[in-house]
Write a structure and sequence with these properties.
alpha/beta, 7-stranded parallel sheet, about 50% helix
Length: about 675
């Protein structure tokens, strides 16, 4: 429970922070957030199930609220705090701005650290090797790279040894030569003790607050907490939590080539032959075993290739992907799946041992360097291929007869003509329940858009929280004066977006809603439509900044320049511009949403989800599509007011909000702007 001492401490820190913040305005919503989060975390509502689903509107100050509620309590209870976010932007804001500010003004003694995956770090020993041996490179351009400058920057702490702090981005081929993989960069080797990855991991053990992304959190939970503290000692804050179900689906999904596997398996045979001549006799047994496994894998994959090649004309006559209804694979694939999963796992274990052995011999300088480095590269490539095969066939081997738990499909890659197999779990509720919610000391899941149609039921179901009695839900509305500061306009129109003539009407109507000397953002549901409209409006003299024609950063820079000088600026964007885009003040006063952001269930995963709902007698449109669209519409409308002094209008050119039965519920889920609906 929260002691009186702790309550007083939280109030005192809050007071210090209010005093330190310039132009601070009292936010009752923030006080409510701090109080409720602290009660959930301390077990006031439920001793064992300390789980909170919290929707906090823009401007409520949720980051500060969860720091206030979690950090003092965690320090008092000797627990760790893990903050997981979906985007790099929020991670950077927390580590570079919010946490240092909180640390300074709370006067609490705690350390915080940003935790990234191993593949984001370079191995300094490998950088030195590249610098010493330019002859290892296959192209002159790669050989000419200035590795010494990189080493100097590391020496003078101008570069922190990770991919994100490189002054100039490195090409993927070069990065792969220096990345800190577990084989090359082992902690047991003294030369690697001061590599960036191991230094960063050393910080993890001493830090009280750890900032991660959703993918790393899931990977760590799935591997039994190899990096982060155990769940029962951890207080989790999952920010941007509306992304967590999708992040988990992506993490537990798999894909691998079903055709053209011969090329890399033949390469494996050549690599094995070279290793036999190079490595000591003690490794011979393992090499021969690995050779046997690769041959076995090859003989199992050949009939698979013949089977999918026969189906190719039927599967890909109209589009480049084909979904297996009810996750039912062709008979041969189903029969081979379990054996393929076992053999690829066996080969994977063997290749890891061989990699380790080769690396040890390289470290002891017993082998010719150039040849050894090339072989290590080959083994890393083989390992990656085997990991993909193992993950896919393991999912394909799971029975789906009575109940369907996966979306399964094949994709024809247009350039290479390879056929790639995919598998993705439909739901991740069980996984999240087992890995996170059952054992965690406390979990606060928060976002500006957690509800769909003003209900927490959808997200509860997606996350696997329907069985937990202790789950607390809270909606804290934004402090913004929506009715005074903004307006939603739904103009009179002849067509609905589903009609053929809609694009033409959009072209003729849009100019009326793009005022001079203002900053506008126009959101489209498809690239095709955006390009059609952009082309037509440019012919009439409009100057437009269109997504895809320059980098996002470049477009926003130009938009900022225009707005600064009070020039007309019109940004055209699709779905990715409706979330995570921050355009405060004059940078956005006029938002136009051309079409409700319905996700067309064309992706195999969405089709499979809809199919599963229909099979259970449900209505996929009402249970899946409408809630998801409502959430996206709320996010899109959230672009307009980013600060309390902002103002402007939102124009929605989709009459379905008025004409369809679901329209009223969608409108009522939006912030309480003034409404002007034309009839």
């Amino acid at each position: 429970m929260l002691t009186d001492q702790l309550k007083t401490q939280i109030r005192t820190i809050h007071q210090h922070i209010k005093t330190a913040l310039p132009n601070y305005q009292s936010r009752p919503g923030q006080n409510q957030l701090v109080a409720e989060m602290a009660k959930i975390i301390s077990g006031t509502y439920h001793r064992n199930e300390r789980i909170g689903l919290i929707e906090a509107g823009t401007g409520t100050g949720k980051s500060l609220a969860y720091m206030l509620a979690a950090i003092p309590y965690a320090l008092a209870q000797k627990k760790k705090v893990v903050i997981a976010t979906a985007t790099v932007a929020l991670q950077e804001q927390l580590v570079n701005k919010d946490l240092p500010f909180f640390q300074q003004h709370s006067k609490l003694l705690f350390e915080f650290s940003l935790v990234k995956g191993r593949q984001r770090y370079a191995c300094i020993e490998r950088v030195r090797q590249q610098q010493k041996h330019p002859e290892l490179f296959t192209t002159a351009a790669d050989a000419a790279f200035d590795w010494q400058a990189l080493l100097d920057n590391w020496q003078h702490r101008k570069w922190l040894g990770d991919r994100d702090t490189l002054a100039t981005p490195l090409a993927e081929t070069l990065w792969q030569r220096i990345v800190a993989d577990p084989v090359h960069c082992s902690k047991t080797d003294r030369r690697h003790l001061h590599c960036p990855f191991h230094l960063a991991r050393a910080e993890v053990s001493s830090a009280d607050v750890l900032v991660v992304n959703h993918a790393l959190l899931l990977a760590d939970l799935a591997s039994g907490n190899s990096i982060l503290p155990p769940p029962d000692e951890t207080l989790y804050i999952i920010d941007e939590a509306h992304h967590l179900p999708d992040s988990a689906r992506e993490f537990f999904a798999a894909q691998a080539q079903l055709t053209h596997n011969n090329s890399w398996l033949e390469k494996a045979a050549k690599t094995i032959q070279q290793l036999i001549t190079l490595l000591p006799a003690t490794v011979m047994k393992e090499l021969l075993r690995f050779d046997d496994s690769c041959n076995e894998l090859s003989s199992l994959l050949k009939p698979v290739e013949r089977c999918v090649t026969e189906f190719k004309p039927r599967w890909f006559s109209e589009k480049t992907d084909y979904r297996f209804a009810d996750a039912a694979l062709p008979k041969l694939l189903q029969q081979q799946a379990e054996q393929l999963a076992q053999v690829s796992q066996k080969a994977l274990t063997q290749v890891e041992k061989i990699q380790q052995q080769l690396q040890e011999n390289v470290t002891e300088q017993q082998l010719p360097l150039k040849q050894s480095m090339a072989l290590l590269q080959e083994l890393s490539y083989l390992r990656q291929k085997l990991e993909q095969q193992q993950a896919l066939w393991q999912l394909y081997a799971q029975e789906q007869d009575k109940n369907v738990y996966q979306a399964r499909w094949v994709e024809l890659q247009s350039q290479s003509q390879y056929i790639v197999g995919h598998a993705c779990p439909l739901g991740v509720a069980n996984k999240l329940e087992q890995l996170l919610f059952n054992d965690a000391f406390a979990v606060i899941l928060c976002s500006a858009t957690l509800t769909a149609l003003n209900s927490f039921q959808y997200i509860k179901y997606d996350l696997g929280l329907t069985q937990f009695d202790g789950v607390q839900t809270l909606q804290v509305v934004s402090p913004f004066a929506y009715a005074e500061k903004g307006q939603i306009v739904i103009p009179k129109m002849q067509c609905e977006p589903t009609e053929q003539a809609y694009t033409d009407e959009l072209i003729s109507l849009l100019p009326q809603y793009l005022p001079d000397d203002q900053a506008s953002l126009v959101l489209f549901a498809s690239y095709w439509q955006m390009q059609q409209v952009a082309e037509a409006l440019r012919k009439t003299g409009f100057s437009l900044l269109v997504q895809g024609e320059a980098s996002r950063q470049a477009l926003l820079q130009l938009h900022g320049e225009n707005s600064k000088h009070n020039r007309t600026s019109i940004l055209f964007g699709t779905q990715s511009f409706s979330e995570g885009l921050d355009l405060p003040g004059k940078l956005l006063t006029n938002l136009v949403i051309t079409k409700l952001p319905f996700a067309v269930p064309t992706s195999p995963l969405e089709e499979a989800l809809a199919e599963a709902i229909s099979k259970k007698g449900g209505n996929a449109f009402l249970q899946l599509t409408i809630p998801a669209t409502s959430k996206k519409l709320v996010q899109a409308c959230g672009r307009l007011l980013r600060q309390e002094q902002d103002e402007g209008r939102i124009v929605i050119l989709d009459r379905r909000l008025v004409t369809k039965s679901y329209g009223a519920a969608m409108l009522n889920a939006l912030p309480p702007f003034r409404r002007q609906i034309e009839y």
